[in-house]
Amino acid sequence: MTGRRPRGYRYGQWHGGPDPLAPPYDLGNAVDEIGDSVLGGSGVREALRELLRRGTEGRRGLDELRRSVRERLRNARTAGRMDGTLEEVRELLDRALDAEKRELFPDPDDAARLAEAELEAIPEDTAGAVRALKEYPWRSPEARQAYEQIQDLLRREVLDSSFASMKQALENAGEQDIQAVKDMVADLSQLIDAHNRGEDTDERFHEFMDEHGQFFPDDPQSIEELIDSLARRAAAQERMMAGLSPEQRAELSDLMAQTMSDMGLASEMSHLQDALRQARPDLPWGQRGQVPDGEQSLGMGDATSAVAELADLEALSSQLSQGYAGASLADIDEELLERALGRPAVDDLAALRQLERELERQGFLNRTDGKLELSPKAVRRLGATALRRVFATLDATGRGEHDVADAGAAGELTGGSREWRFGDEQPLDVVRTVKNAVLRTAGEPRVEGQRRVRIGVEDFEVVETERRTGAAVALLVDLSYSMALRGTWGAAKSTAMALHSLVTTRFPQDAIQIIGFSSTAQVLRPETLAELSVDTLQGTNLQHGLMLARRFLAHHRDAEPVVLVVTDGEPTAHLEDDGTPFFCWPPMPETIARTVAELERVARTGATVNVFALDPDPGLIHFVHDLTQRAGGRVFEPDADRLGEYVVADYLRVRRGRRAR
């Protein structure tokens, strides 16, 4: 019987992608920073955008990257003037004419005088002069050389403005080199035409690059990359021309047309330009954009490169700003970013993208129909953070400040114990009491070889119990626009999140409902509250908020009813009999009457109604004092930064208060 050979295993470094055993991406600080912004009154999308603008620890954010791009942009704007080719052609033309006139002057022949007259009659504009001298029989070798330099310069500059680095490639080019360019342009036009028709051009592209790759030092890897590079440069050439004065533009256009015609490329280059437009209609063809303006004169090729760089930097700056509708980190062009700021900037962008992905993958953010929301997991963390901050500032007046701890039939063990105090009726925690005595007497001498443990009063501990005082809490939060104007909206949102977290995590036998009110009122889920901004509609419809609170309390008749109201203004809106909201400022007597009537209905349920007034306006204070007297409640006037402390402490006090009596 032949057995199977045992399979061998080898262990080594993982190369199949992300390490599957790596710890999850640490999002704690990021979630807390988003939470800080949300608790400060921002929406979730705004909070995430702020985080991406600031960046994470050790990584630049979008704002810093954009500042670096703007610095590059300022430098690019002073790269030089666009008329460098025209100036160089004029200088060479003047040199040629001066040399030819010096050659003709000593010659007494009539032919020399006719040649001088011909030179005097050439057009004044540069392009016209270059055209008029095309067939002129130069006598001076220096003049002939200068004119030939003009033709060579124009060939190289004109092609360099369409194909980057062509100026250097065609220096001192012969007929064979020019023919190679013509063949390349013809093949390129056919390739782009095929691409525009939707044909599969992958194989043709690689054949084209094998034959003509020397003309494309940026080494494009696909037909799309090739078209993108050429189309951007062609569009930049148009913007460069648009940046010239009308006279300069006319002269340079004439020189370009002459040069293309002389090279036999006029028709092919025109066709190529049209094909590039068809392939990339999204580029700003024919639009006048920013052009460099500096002391140095730039040739056509360099000027086109400078204009293209300006356009790229402007586009990159806009992408990094994320200030347009539907903006996304995916919009940022990594290639442009690397060209502008180097590889470290791309790594910083990758870190921001990973952060955004991980927030969704690990369940802190949900994206539904393009809308970004905090997940229940993130809301729980957010509420816990808000609550932690409240308790950090809450001035406790004893253990009973946070809960009711006593014995009795309604008592329930909390699992803790505390020192016995005079008057306590809770049962002794025997184990802890004896342990305290043993520890206290551990150093005392033994008596007849035995240790006697003497229990003292200071050793006693009693078992803590919690009275199950179920409460139904309705928290009414003003959403009117004045809350944002006074800077109190963030504190109100944070307070609501903290109270919701406290009730749901520490007092699960209680029930809570958060109600927002402006022109009308609405019940708010914690996830909705986190994303919510204040209402830009006018109105403080406390009446409607109290109606919703009364319905909520009716579903919890066996619980202690608690109504807490956070507002910064008198009621200015109410619901008409048909349910239509009505607004008026100053408040109408009918609005006040309907609000008071609804409050009295709430008071008849036995609810405690306490109001937290965030504006010291005497009219508001007088109104809420009158309101709370009808319901046996109280008025608090906290600073906004202590609102959470006041509300949570009052909830805890009311929760234990009435049934404990």
UniProtKB/TrEMBL annotation:
Residues 1-20 are annotated as: Disordered. Residues 470-652 form the VWFA domain. It comes from the Bacteria. Gene3D superfamilies: von Willebrand factor, type A domain. This is Uncharacterized protein, contains von Willebrand factor type A (VWA) domain. It comes from Blastococcus haudaquaticus. The lineage of its organism: Bacteria, Bacillati, Actinomycetota, Actinomycetes, Geodermatophilales.
